Amino acid sequence: MDNVFHPLSRQSQPSDSEAGVSLPNVDTSSSQLRPTTVSGSASQSSTSHQHNYATPGHSDEEFNVGSVKTIRMIGLTVGDVSVVGESSQACTAVSTPVAKALYPLPEKRQRPIVRKLRHTYLAVYQRLFSVVTILNAIAFVSIFTTADTGKPRLLSSLATAAATNILVAIMMRQEYVINLIFKTCWMIPHSAPLRFRRMLAKVYEFGGIHSGAAFCSTAWFIAYSAILTKDMVNGTMRFPAMLAVAWVLVFLLVLIIATAMPMFRMAHHNSFEVIHRLVGWTALAFFWAELFLYAIAVQRVYTSDPPIYGLILIREPAFWLLAVTTAMVIWPWLFLHKLAIKPEKFSNRAIRLHFTGYKVPSFCGIRLSRSPLLEWHAFACIAHDDGGSVLVSSGGDWTRDCIANPRPYYYVKGIPVTGVLNMAQAFRLSVIVTTGSGIGPCLSYLAGIGKQGTCRMIWSAPNPWANYGKDICDAVTKVDPNAMVLDTESSGRQDLAALAYQMYVDSGAEAIFVISNPRVTKQIVYAMESRGVPAFGPIWDS
Question: Within a 10 A sphere around the Cβ of 52, how many other Cβ atoms?
Fold first, then answer.
């Protein structure tokens, strides 16, 4: 694991476009890098301090992040930059202590191919997927080298292996299991080595276990169906119904996996969700049918006793594994109910949905739906004494309709679930970078910690005061009085990677958390991790 930071020599390095996205352009002449009002220091006067900015030249220190060129700021600044223009309902362009120098991003570590493998193709998600696959490969070799291919025990072993993987895949999406995993990891004391806490903070990539187990269950069923086909051809077990159900089940599992691939999932999210849910239920039903047909086949082919199908079933490990899996699938739906909503519309871009009578623990989120069988949308919850609220920003058809035509109620199911940002509790001090409605999950976290000195904030959004309201802005400055709030309408988009790094160094933070859209999150996390800075943010499967 990389150290948090140490000085590095400057050398030619590829740009951050290695992360798969380009960074937004930064306006180096923007007022966002110049304080308008200075206050909060005994040495300050009513007039602004003058600052010098280097202009491009041979002697200037400048650094590049993808397509971004940020000029290093020289000279000294003192004090805090106050909130600018609150009376005109424009949230501060920059509200933060301005550093004495804009720290340039250090050069990336390691060779390009190593960085690409470590932080992209072999990230924690992919490593977990690989571990699950390797363990299953070992089990596969063990079964086929020890089992008698002419006996039903081989089919039983294959069915058990498939059922085990399906159970693991479902467990990794069960709210109780997710909450337990997160709580176990964030309970690690701050006295633990930073390297160990950095490793645990990547727990949100546990989806690699889910996808690995789902992939392997399909492979086991393909092997099961192939052996069954061989037995049919050899005349060992002639039971066409059993063979037909097995291959239909294989088809359903392959369909689920194919539509869960990132490219399809991102382009057709609603279709992915419907297929994952409804086809998944259908596959579970076919697995039950296959088990019953297996019991009938064993009774007919290998015994001459009176029918004892139930006894054959309960002796099969797959039966009990499938029973637990089915219970886990059904359990959240037992809590399906309508949740009354009181909307608070900020603008055409954002709305806050308030609710009471539904207790949500700190650091958790809920899923809302208008059509429970079709689609669900996850939102971080800002918890209150007898309820809470969620912040919804325009980002798709569902959210735009929610803002334009808020319903008096939405459906919820299961229990509130823990999110990525909560792992910030594993660090003494974290820098949180967010854009737009990403402030919602951040407010959920800020409301949970409820005290200063545990995080620093950078929030970039178009006219935050007008679009999100005074209460939201106040909630940010309550926990971080010197939060940096960037108004992109007045000054354009800034280089968030450079700003995050400067705040990380200035504050002595232990980690950076990014809550934004997938492109920006991936961009900043890669920019930091490739330089040895601990950085975390939701991935495509979070």
Answer: 10
Is the per-residue pLDDT at 39 higher than 70?
no
pLDDT reported for residue 390: 92
Q: Strand 511-515 to strand 430-435: parallel, antiparallel, or no bridges (unpaired)?
A: parallel
Domain boundaries, the chain: 16-103+427-536, 115-332, 337-413
**What CATH topology corresponds to 337-413?**
Elongation Factor Tu (Ef-tu); domain 3 (2.40.30)
Closest CA to 232 of 220, 246, 216, 249: 246
Q: Considering the chain, what is the average pLDDT of its residues?
A: 80
Does residue 223 contact residue 154 with C-beta atoms inside 8 Å?
A: no
Which residue would you say has higher pLDDT here, 287 or 307? 287
The span from the CA of 418 to the CA of 180, in Å, is: 9
- pLDDT at 22 > cutoff 70: no
Distances (CA, A) of 447 to 83, 98, 421, 444: 21, 26, 12, 5
Strands, E, within 369-454: which ranges? Answer: 377-384, 387-393, 409-412, 417-418, 430-435
According to CATH, the topology of domain 16-103+427-536 is: Rossmann fold (3.40.50)
Decide: 463 and 489 in contact? Cβ < 8 Å: yes
- Contact status, residue 197 vs residue 191, Cβ threshold 8 Å: no
